[in-house]
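For practice. Any example?
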Amino acid sequence: MKTKKPIAIIPARVGSQRIRLKNVRLFHNKPLIYWTIKSALESKVFSKIYISTDGTIIKNELNKFKKFKNKIFFLYRPKKLSGSKTKTSSLIKYLIKKNSLEKFFTDFILLQPTSPLRKKEHIIKMWNIYKKYNLNDFFSVSEKKNKFAINKNNRNIFYGERKINSKKLKSIFQNGSIYIKNLQSFKKDPNFVTKNSNLYFMNKRVSLDVDTLKDLEK
C-alpha cells in the first residue's frame, strides 16, 4: 500500500568541478549537506529521507551525527550517473526504476544539498500547497540569478501559502532548492521544468546555491 507522505531524495555525489568534496565542506561549522538533511527532518513531512551518493565519504561523514541515525537512508548512485555532466533527472529516473519507488510512494521532493539556507517552513508550505491544489509539478524560484530563467506567464506562483500576481515580479529563476513531483508523472516525463510547472517564490536571502568557495563563507 502506498503512503500519502512523500519521500525526500537528496543527490550528493562525491565529485565536484569547482569545489573538491563540496557536499561535506564546512558551511557554518557543519558539512554543507547537513543543513538540507536538518531541514528535511525538522519539517516532519517525509515518510523516508534518501541520500543518493556514489561513495563512502559522504555516508561516513553523516554517520558521525547521532541525530541522523536510523532517520536517513542511502541509495547507491552508480559512477556512470555521478559525472559533472549528469542530469539530476537521469539520476532520479534511475533511482525510481532501480528501487521500484513508485510501488510504495506517490510523490517525491528533490532537495539539493547546495541550498543550505532552505528552512523547514519552505518545505512544509510547498507540500501543503501541492496537496491543496492537487499539483503534479512544483518547484522553487527567486529573483536571484542562480540557474535558468523561467517564463512566469500563465503559471501559478505562490509566496508563503497564497497566490501572487506574477506582474509584480521581475525576472525569476530556478533557485535549485525544492522540486516536488508525482512519481508516476515523472516516469512519463522525466523533467523538473515543464509547461505545467507551478512556482513557489523564495526570497533572495534564502536562495543561496553554493557553487564557489566564496559561497561557503556566506
